[in-house]
Amino acid sequence: MRNRLPFRVAALYIFFMRVFFPVAFSMVAIAILSVVEIYFLKKLHKDWWKSLWIRVSSFSIPTSGIVFLSVWTLGIIYGERMLIEFGAYGASAVLIIGLALMLSLPFSALLHFLSFIGARIKRRSQLRTEAMHTPDETRRSVLKTAAFAFPAFAIVVGGKGLASSFQGPRFPNINLFFASLPDVLNGFRVLHLSDVHLGLFLGMPELERIVALASVNQVDLVLITGDFSDDVTIYSDALALSSKIPATYGSFASIGNHEYFRGITEILSCYERGPIPLLLSSGQSVNVGNSVLYIAGVDDPRSLGSIHESFFRTTIDAALRDHPTDVFTILMSHRPEGFHHAADMGVQLTLAGHTHGGQIGWNGRSIMESVLEKKYMWGWYEKGGSQLYTSAGAGHWFPYRLGCPAEVPIYTLRKKLS
Fold first, then answer.
1. Structure pTM?
2. Mean pLDDT (whole number) for 58-68
3. Strands (E), 129-230
4. Which listed residue, 144, 189, 257, 270, has the most CB atoms within 10 A of its CB?
């Protein structure tokens, strides 16, 4: 019995992490945001807090969170997909509203403070005239109205981001130019499927639509760069469905951190039995006409924290071990950090995902780009003669996208003319 206890504890922990962790995480996040929101209202907006509807509205956020989380939990217990989706989307909406209020209320408080300072200056002034009175009152009224505008605007933006997450992925066509590209690969088309995150917010019907849209694009190769499904029970079916995308030279896959989180043993079995080869710290040569294209896939470090570059050096070196000399190479690295060593090794093209572009972008770039300069958050990058494209992902594990739509990029390799 003693020997079986650690195994049962481990099994319960794994079950909790796979099934109930999103609920638990949402519960903690909603609780924290609700406490902060109410604190900001009571301390920074005392005049607002006197209003009954403000107090009722502020407490309705955690109350709604409890309701949606309860429905979500019941859906998991009874296996009801409709309840799971209703609870998950509702809890996500509560999280977004809570976060919007938490970020906007300090700015509203600043306008309140400016209004207060203006009133103090007015009372102390000894040179008032009736003509000056009206503009001062008007100015204070404008400041108070603007204070309300901050949380209102934040909630509207939050709602827009939530609504945008319901839209399916786009299929951008991206031309990539290489001086060393063999003539036979000029015009070669690669479809890149990354971070679908099947499970909570995207299911098999959504994947069927992606496959249908992808199938009309006449591509030569399909590459899947990890975080494919958060539901292990549908992983095999999802791979089988994805393999139906017509591609002259087939499909290949690499893994991401969510494959480890959700159960790497079962997922490896899915690949062993499935129609799509998994390249895990390994590569494969593909004959294209009279030339060779080398496809490589790296491992994932699993960690959410800082990652030592030695990990990527080790896994990329292993993936390139059987790499023929002087051939065009495409490397699948779930995390774009692998691009550093890939470029040093002369890999012409690296495809990555993982970041989701931060799910908030502007003008085709992640807004996190200026903060995380070397994280390659979203889009095209170049280092020496090597290129990287980081996909914003075909799906997400949290339903919010603003200026950074889900995508399934299609790359056309082009010969760069001198």
1. 0.88
2. 94
3. 173-178, 189-193, 221-225
4. 270
